[in-house]
Design brief:
Layout (H helix, E strand, L loop, with lengths): L1 H28 L9 H13 L5 E2 H8 L7 H13 L4 E4 L18 E4 L1 H6 L8 E3 L6 E3 L8 H5 L1 E5 L2 E5 L4 H12 L15 E3 L12 E4 L2 E5 L2 E4 L8 H13 L5 E6 L7 E5 L5 H11 L3 E4 L4 E4 L2 E4 L2 H42 L12 H12 L12 H8 L3 H5 L3 H23 L1 H16 L8 E3 L6 H4 L4 E6 L4 E3 L6 E6 L4 E6 L3 E6 L4 E2 L4 E7 L7 E7 L6 E6 L10 E2 L8 E8 L3 E9 L9 E5 L5 E2 L6 E4 L3 E12 L4 E5 L6 E2 L5 E6 L4 E6 L3 E6 L11 E6 L5 E7 L6 E7 L8 E3 L8 E6 L4 E8 L5 E7 H4 L2 E2 L6 E2 L4 E10 L16 E3 L5 E3 L1
Parallel strand pairs: 8-17, 26-31, 41-46
Antiparallel strand pairs: 1-3, 2-3, 4-5, 6-7, 8-9, 9-14, 10-11, 11-13, 12-13, 15-16, 18-19, 18-20, 19-23, 21-22, 21-24, 22-27, 25-26, 25-28, 26-32, 29-30, 29-33, 34-35, 34-36, 37-38, 37-39, 38-42, 40-41, 40-43, 41-47, 44-45, 44-48, 49-50
Length: 846
């Protein structure tokens, strides 16, 4: 008996849970594929259509009317209505509806008003083709789904959490969606990408068409105003200015950033000003903002919809195809309905014409019963049935008997004929549209584009983000101490030797005198091993950090020299730079961040049998090998001491740098535009479209706004640049050739007139070039002209005005063309054979 009861209770629980889960999925959280709406949204729009009279209605009244259809109370309806209104597509709003950028809530429903937008009325409703069902209390009819003739779900996006199920569909651009629909109908490829009301930047490389497992990275737009000031002008989707500022303050308090103050000047446009602490790099701070705050967020889309009363996971591309097909079918239904209405109207007009012109009404004057009247009219109409599209019914005859005498007496035969002809033309047009329904649907989408698309431009910039190393942007807000003799290191050993500043996420490399070494995380206090020889911050994959080493092998007493790098290894594990024998010992050790070689003096033990007890050794003669190599024999005798004599040049040469034109970031990974090979003293020059230039030190944390730049390249003081600009005062065009004379870094210098309206048109780094342009003669004839710039003007200072071009009418089409000569010896090309990696991971110089 007990088991039976338990079984029944278990079954009841299972049934109730499944019913509840199904209800939440189907009726609350997940939108329907047919119209892209959740039930509450559909009921709101249906209610507003019922109330629609082209005037605004109090939101409180709309909520009250919607409660006839929705069983979950006014709060749920109010929140859904405000959410729809803030998307600025289906609902025309009036009053304080809040701000999605700042997170400000809307005013109370009694203070704000709304009505359906013109767009909503055009794409969302068609009563004759809409299927309905009874509302929750059985008193009213409500639509099962609206005949939505637009990919609303993809335009607005949707988010919902049900029992064991969720959906997250990102919003897309209005114009791009409609163009993609047209491409689908034309059997052409298409691509749709997210677009957010808050703007910003988005990396969609892992979007995966919005399917499960995809990922989208979204960033704020951050501008560097000067060395001490940053400006945030957009925020990521789903964040607010308040939450963004809170995340920045939290990161600052945690020591991950160093900022002086934040000012929120958001009004019509977003403007958050960040004032930096003196000495903090703005480029590093930008990266830190993306790494540690809500200035960058990651969103995982999950396109789930209700299809045939079941949840279904699909891609946004499939969803758009289904929406396009549904739109075509909805339009076809509407056309067929209009056609049926017109055919009925044509049928009645034709009957009326036959009835009056053939004076059938006279034949019923002597009929004394209703049945006789009907019979007589049917008999008289029988010869004309073949002229009609359908059979004559009793209802048709009844309608004829209701024609007033006044209409018969004033009957206009020609007018009736024209009316019938006009209807026939409309019927032919509808039949043609139905026959060519694909072309008709394309015209419909084009109509929507033209009528509603003018203010729907993309707000979010598609970009490809770099992967920011958190270690490279973490603020060094701690100090690392070491007790070399006892073998302890950490940030809490304040009484011992200070090594350097560090952050809590840095890695430390430690070499012991016995030849063992290890990489470990920064910690408060940690024991590594006695007799620490060297300790420093370690950067992964830094192949330019070369260690020069002399060690004595404990078994043979032979001293070996080697040069090696430590680009990667497993953390908290000991490795050997010697051969690992007992009593091995490091005799000489240096760390060289730019692969510098060095010359050292070797002093042998005075009791050794060597003829030369003092000699020089140049590490430049050693190949740079991997860390496990044995090294070259330096001497078989006991070394007493080694003293550095001089530091040599970088063995590996300068670092070859590129700038990624998509994200404006300097990199070592051969991405984007090659800048050149850089040594520590080399600099970068940037020419901006606003007509100025700037020289900066090369720094891997540098970030450039490529859309504002004409040229970014390695600085060469001997290089000649050519500039074409329009003077704002005279409205005339000038050309100047110049060399860069200033050596100040991080300061912009003007190259064109500072008069208001002056505009830089072109900048070139070609030494020998031609400028071509068009102008018009007085007879309106268009003429082209080419000028050899080198012959036209000499090289002058950067402050010179330059030389004026001809003062011609309607000058346009300016272009610089390089005059091809012998290869310029100043142009640096990346040499992929300069450093090669052999099979033993040994860096070999050629």
């Amino acid at each position: 008996m007990s088991n039976s009861k338990n079984r029944n209770i278990s079954n009841m629980y299972e049934d109730w849970f499944l019913e509840y889960a199904s209800y939440v999925i189907l009726e609350r959280a997940v939108p329907k594929i047919e119209d892209g709406l959740k039930p509450v949204q559909r009921r709101i729009l249906h209610s507003m259509k019922e109330m629609h009279d082209a005037r605004y209605h109090k939101v409180a009244n709309i909520i009250g009317n919607t409660m006839q259809f929705h069983p979950h109370g006014d709060a749920a309806i109010g929140d859904a209505l405000v959410n729809l209104g803030q998307k600025d597509l289906l609902i025309d709003t009036q009053g304080n509806w809040g701000d999605i950028r700042t997170g400000d809530r809307s005013a109370a429903p009694r203070y704000i008003e709304a009505r359906l937008s013109e767009f909503a009325l055009e794409v969302s409703f068609n009563k004759p083709t809409t299927k309905t069902q009874l509302s929750y209390d059985g008193r009213k009819d409500e639509p099962i789904s609206l005949p939505m003739k637009f990919p609303l779900l993809l335009a607005q996006g949707a988010e919902g959490i049900a029992v064991g199920l969720s959906t997250k569909i990102l919003p897309h651009n209005f114009i791009e969606l409609l163009k993609a629909c047209i491409s689908i109908l034309n059997d052409k490829p298409f691509k749709i990408l997210p677009d957010f009301q808050t703007g910003g930047l988005v990396d969609v490389t892992q979007y995966n068409q919005g399917k499960r497992g995809g990922r989208v990275r979204i960033r704020s737009h951050i501008d560097i105003l000067d060395k001490h000031t940053l400006k945030i002008s957009t925020i990521p989707y789903s964040t607010t200015t308040t939450s963004l500022i809170d995340s920045i303050v939290k990161a600052n308090n945690a020591g991950k950033l160093k900022i002086k103050s934040i000012e929120d000047n958001t009004a019509e446009k977003i403007e958050i000003i960040i004032n930096l602490v003196k000495g903090v790099s703005p480029d590093v701070t930008v990266d830190a903002l993306y790494s540690f705050t809500n200035c960058e967020i990651s969103v995982s889309p999950n396109c789930c919809v209700i299809n045939d009363n079941k949840p279904e996971f699909i891609s946004v591309n499939e969803l758009l195809k289904i929406s396009t097909h549904n739109t075509l079918e909805y339009l076809k239904l509407e056309l067929n309905y209009k056609l049926s209405v017109l055919k009925e109207k044509w049928h009645l007009l034709c009957l009326e014409k036959i009835f009056i012109e053939n004076k059938i009404y006279r034949d019923i004057e002597d009929c004394d019963t209703w049945d006789l009247i009907i019979e007589t009219i049917l008999f008289k109409l029988k010869p004309f049935i073949k002229l009609l599209e359908r059979k004559i019914t009793i209802e048709d005859v009844t309608r004829l008997t209701e024609i007033k005498i006044k209409k018969i007496t004033k009957y206009d035969k020609l007018k009736q004929k024209n009316n019938i002809k006009n209807i026939e033309e409309e019927i032919d047009e509808l039949n043609n549209d139905i026959k060519h329904i694909v072309e008709y649907t394309i015209r419909y989408y084009e109509h929507l584009l033209k009528k509603y698309g003018s203010d729907k431009v993309r707000k979010t910039q598609i970009s490809e983000f770099d992967s920011i190393s958190i270690k490279s942007v973490a603020i060094a807000n701690k100090k690392l101490f070491v007790n070399k003799k006892e073998g302890f290191l950490g940030t809490k050993l304040t009484k011992d030797e200070c090594v350097c500043k560090c952050s809590s996420i840095d890695d430390i490399i430690v070499f012991l005198e016995d030849g063992r070494y290890m990489v470990t995380k920064v910690s408060d206090k940690k024991y590594i091993g006695k007799n620490i020889k060297y300790i420093a911050i370690w950067k992964k994959n830094d192949n330019h950090m070369i260690y020069n080493l002399v060690y004595k092998d404990g078994k043979t007493n032979i001293s070996y020299a080697k040069r090696f790098s430590v680009p990667s290894l497993i953390r908290d594990r000991f490795y050997n730079i010697s051969q690992g024998t007992d009593k091995s010992k490091i005799v000489y050790f240096t760390a060289n961040p730019n692969s510098e070689s060095e010359i050292v003096n070797i002093f042998l033990n005075s009791k050794s049998k060597a003829k030369n007890k003092v000699f020089e050794y140049d590490f430049k003669n050693l190949n740079i090998k991997n860390r496990t190599s044995k090294g070259n024999i330096l001497t078989k005798y006991i070394v007493r001491k080694i003293i550095r004599k001089s530091v040599g040049e970088s063995t590996l040469g300068g670092r070859r740098l590129w700038v990624d034109e998509n994200i404006g970031k300097i990199n070592l990974e051969n991405r984007g535009i090659y800048l050149g090979s850089f040594n520590s003293q080399d600099k970068i020059i940037i020419f901006y479209k606003e007509g100025n230039y700037e020289v900066v030190d090369f720094d891997l944390s540098k970030r450039f706004k490529m859309s504002d730049i004409f040229i970014v390249e390695k600085f060469n003081a001997n290089k000649i640049y050519t500039i074409l600009y329009k003077d704002g005062k005279t409205k005339q065009y000038f050309i100047k050739r110049l060399k860069i004379e200033t050596l100040l870094t991080d300061k912009k210098f003007n190259l064109i007139s500072e008069t208001r309206g002056s505009k830089c048109k072109l900048i070139s780094n070609y030494d020998n070039l031609m400028v071509s342009y068009n102008y018009k003669l007085k007879n309106n004839e268009k003429v082209s002209k080419d000028i050899n710039v080198k012959n036209f003007i000499d090289v002058k200072g950067y402050k010179s005005i330059g030389k004026r071009l001809d003062n011609k009418l309607h000058m346009s089409g300016f272009k610089f063309k390089e005059i091809i000569t012998e290869n310029d010896p100043n142009v640096e090309v990346p040499d992929n054979d300069q450093v090669q990696d052999n099979d033993n991971n040994e860096l070999t110089l050629f």
